[in-house]
Amino acid sequence: MPAVLGRVSLRSVRKARVKEVPLSEAKDALSRYLRQAEEQPVVITRHGKPAGILIGFESEDDWFDYRLENDPRFLARVEKARASLRWKLMPKSLSRSTSISRIAASMKPASEECRAAR
Q1: What would the pLDDT profile of 26-73 be if each residue is shown by its tens digit?
Q2: φ, ψ for residue 100 (rounded to 5)?
Q3: What is the pTM of this model?
């Protein structure tokens, strides 16, 4: 399957073991590094500094998942759905028009309630 050379979040790279390869070496043996990238990310370096990353896909499903995870339109729809769920799960005792500051003010720490009861 094809692989991409591009931008990836640092979080995903830090979680996985990575192999670093100089650009000159990657150009000479690209197909070998594509096969290796199916198992672990391959960081391409230029003058000893990370310049890009090679990510391999074992299947078309992996490619599809990668595209979704990095599609801003899809991510926006997911966030919108999550916000909608949070809104629907809001306790009925709170009016949906209640401002955040009023909600926060009503949630006094226990120590303040004890002082107020004295």
Answers
A1: 888 999 998 999 889 999 999 999 999 998 888 999 999 989 888 999
A2: -60, -40
A3: 0.47
CB 56 within 8 A of CB 36: yes
Domain that holds residue 47: 4-60
**Domain end: 60, 83, 99, which one?**
60
Name the nearest CA neighbour of 26 among 13, 14, 37.
Answer: 37
66 domain-assigned: no
Backbone CA torsion sign across 78, 81, 86, 87: positive
Residue 47 — left, alpha, or beta (φ > 0 → left; ψ -120 to 50 → alpha)? left
DSSP 16-68: S--EEEEHHHHHHTHHHHHHHHTTS-EEEEETTEEEEEEE--SSHHHHHHHHH
In a domain, 33, yes or no: yes
Q: Are 11 and 54 in a shared domain?
A: yes
